[in-house]
Write a structure and sequence with these properties.
The complex is a heterodimer of chains A (171) and B (237). Chain A is mainly alpha-helical and 171 residues long. In chain A, helix 1 runs antiparallel to helix 2 and helix 6 packs across helix 8. Chain B is α+β, with helices and mostly antiparallel strands and 237 residues long. Helices cover 48% and strands 20% of the residues of chain B. A 6-stranded antiparallel β-sheet of chain B has the order 2-3-4-7-6-5, with helices on both faces. In chain B, strands 1-8 form a two-stranded antiparallel ribbon. In chain B, strand 6 and strand 7 form a beta hairpin. The chains are: A mainly alpha (171), B alpha+beta (237). At the A-B interface, helix 1, helix 2, helix 5, helix 6 and helix 8 of A face helix 1, helix 3 and helix 4 of B.
Chain lengths: 171, 237
């Protein structure tokens, strides 16, 4: 019992940040992301004995979270393609040039189709390899690599068109 | 590795460590430049993805788990209690069922089974004898009385005859003991006047409130026994 508790707390401390960020990029809403993380860890606690390999903990948790997110859509079938800019980040805190750029890029990432943004987030944020991502998303590796290529390509193109767009925010 | 392939590889994974892509970068400055650009892009993406995590989220997660597992434990004890209660009820019902339901549908079958069950307990040449007085004391329960003894009575006591309190008499017979049951009338078991199997045969006499069943082996004359019983037994009202 004690060891399970210790394991759980270690898991929470080590991975809650990554998991929250991943959830945030899945659903684009802070509150929903937090709820998803809560549900995920609660399920993880119940199934903790089935986690044999601690190295696989992150992908295990992400798999639970993705399932949890899918369930959210089963429960209430609202239109998921609708993305509301207001939810992405609060514009009030945008002060420095760096943050401005972050904010701008966040919107671009949020606007990517989910099938492109998800592998990108797993790769950059999660540090997973192409093979890992392919297993987690149940795709073949070539598809994952193509999607990663397209995701970056789109962001790069958007970035190159930046000055025009940027002006809107600066001016 | 041509340019398109290279670009695709770098776009898909800027930290690509394939021998091919590394070699391509070393031979071509523009490719090197491109790879650096994309690495910078990745850093930007990385920074952009680092959305702030709500404060105290990890504490919340641990708290929620602690509460949840506490509730689960409470629920578990309740479930255990309910389970134990269910088992007790089922056990009680089973016992009831086994004790009070009959596996036999008529008097004859049950009588034969009863006799076989206690076959080993009585020897035909047993020395003990039960007096007519003590027999009649027991018969009083059934409002009956024997005017004289039917033979050498080896054993007389109450027993359960398919759940009913009845009197079990064992007389010395010609080759093996003769068993006589005095059983209150009951609707569960249908009356069977004559019955037999390979070794034993029996017959029942019907009176107002009771049946008297005689079971003996084939050397005995059941008719004689029946007649003797009918002549000696009398019933008070």
């Amino acid at each position: 019992m004690m060891t399970k508790q210790v394991r759980y707390e270690a898991l929470v401390k080590a991975l809650h940040g990554d998991l929250y960020r991943y959830a945030y990029w899945l659903c684009h809403e802070k509150q929903v992301a937090e709820d998803l993380v809560q549900e995920t860890f609660l399920r993880a606690w119940r199934a903790l004995d089935s986690l044999k390999d601690e190295k696989a903990a992150k992908s295990w948790l992400i798999t639970i979270l993705r399932r949890e997110n899918a369930r959210r859509f089963e429960r209430k079938r609202f239109d998921m393609s609708e993305y509301e800019e207001a939810n992405i980040t609060d514009t009030k805190s945008v002060t420095t040039e760096q943050e401005l750029e972050n904010h701008w890029l966040r919107e671009k990432i949020a606007q990517l189709p989910p099938e492109y943004s998800e592998p990108l987030i797993l790769q950059v944020l999660g540090g997973f390899s192409g093979e890992d991502i392919a297993t987690m998303l149940d795709l073949n590796k070539n598809t994952v690599m193509t999607r990663l290529f397209r995701a970056r390509n789109q962001l790069k193109e958007a970035l190159e068109a930046e000055p025009v767009k940027r002006g809107i925010y600066n001016g | 590795m041509d340019d398109l392939q290279f670009r695709r590889a770098i776009y898909a994974d800027p930290n690509n460590q394939d021998a091919d892509t590394i070699a391509a970068q070393q031979n071509d400055a523009s490719k090197r430049q491109f790879a650096q650009d994309i690495c910078q892009l990745d850093e930007k993406i990385m920074r952009a993805l680092q959305v702030p995590v709500p404060e105290g989220l990890s504490e919340k997660l641990i708290l929620r788990q602690t509460l949840a597992s506490h509730q689960v434990q409470k629920r578990k004890t309740r479930v255990h209690l309910a389970l134990a209660a269910s088992v007790a009820i089922v056990g009680g019902l089973m016992l009831n069922f086994m004790q009070f339901s009959s596996a036999y549908t008529n008097l004859g079958d049950y009588a034969l089974a009863h006799v076989y069950h206690e076959q080993g307990s009585f020897a035909n040449n047993a020395t003990n004898q039960v007096s007519l007085t003590s027999l009649n004391q027991k018969m009083a329960t059934f409002d009956g009385n024997f005017s004289r003894t039917l033979g050498k009575l080896i054993f007389a006591d109450y027993c359960r005859f398919d759940g009913m309190k009845s009197l079990h008499l064992v007389y010395q017979g010609k080759t093996s003991p003769v068993t006589v049951f005095i059983v209150p009338k009951n609707e569960q078991l249908s009356f069977s006047a004559d019955f037999n199997d390979k070794k034993l045969f029996g017959s029942s006499l019907e009176f107002n409130h009771s049946n008297i069943i005689v079971v003996a082996d084939k050397n005995e004359s059941l008719g004689q026994w029946q007649q003797n019983i009918s002549e000696t037994v009398s019933w008070s009202i």
